């Protein structure tokens, strides 16, 4: 009798500025996390902020949080006012 070949189990990281909260991205991420785990994959969470204590392996990277000063500066420069060519260069430098 031929052996049944199971799909390769993978390690999957879900990465976002905020996870395990009540925002739309967190709720959608939780759906995918459930699906990945049901398929037998190992799921890891990486975020700048967690809305609740993760029950999965995780990594907190404060520099990814929307409230981090650098991220706040990028958001302000990119979305709140028109910027000149020189300011565009500064924005690109911040992003990199």
Description:
The chain has a 3-stranded parallel sheet, covered by helices on one side. Strand 1, helix 1 (24-38) and strand 2 form a beta-alpha-beta unit. It is elongated. Helix 2 (69-79) runs antiparallel to helix 3 (85-95). The protein contains 3 helices and 3 strands. The protein has helices at residues 24-38, 69-79, 85-95, and strands at residues 11-19, 42-50, 58-60. The longest helix has 15 residues, at 24-38.
**How many whole angstroms does the radius of gyration measure?**
19 Å
Query: Which descriptor suits the 3D outline?
Result: elongated
Please report the total strand number as a whole number.
3
Overall pLDDT level: 90
Going across the biggest sheet, name each strand in turn.
Answer: 1-2-3
Percent helix, as a range, is 25-40%
List the helices and strands in order: EHEEHH
Structural class designation: alpha/beta
Largest sheet: 3 strands, parallel
The fraction of residues assigned to DSSP E strands is 15-25%
Tally of helical segments: 3
Please report the distance between the alpha carbons of the first and last residues. 55 Å
How would you sum up this structure in a few lines?
The chain is of the alpha/beta class.
Q: Topology, pairings included?
A:
Elements: E1 11-19, H1 24-38, E2 42-50, E3 58-60, H2 69-79, H3 85-95
Parallel strand pairs: 1-2, 2-3
């Amino acid at each position: 009798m031929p052996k049944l070949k199971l799909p390769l189990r993978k390690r999957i990281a879900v990465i976002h500025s905020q996870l395990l909260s009540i925002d739309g991205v967190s709720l959608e991420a939780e759906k995918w996390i459930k699906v990945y785990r049901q398929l037998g994959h190992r799921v890891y969470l990486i975020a700048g902020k967690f809305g609740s204590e993760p029950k999965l392996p995780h990594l907190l990277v404060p520099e990814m949080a929307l409230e981090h000063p650098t991220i706040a500066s990028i958001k302000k420069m990119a979305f709140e006012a028109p910027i000149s060519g020189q300011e565009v260069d500064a924005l690109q430098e911040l992003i990199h």
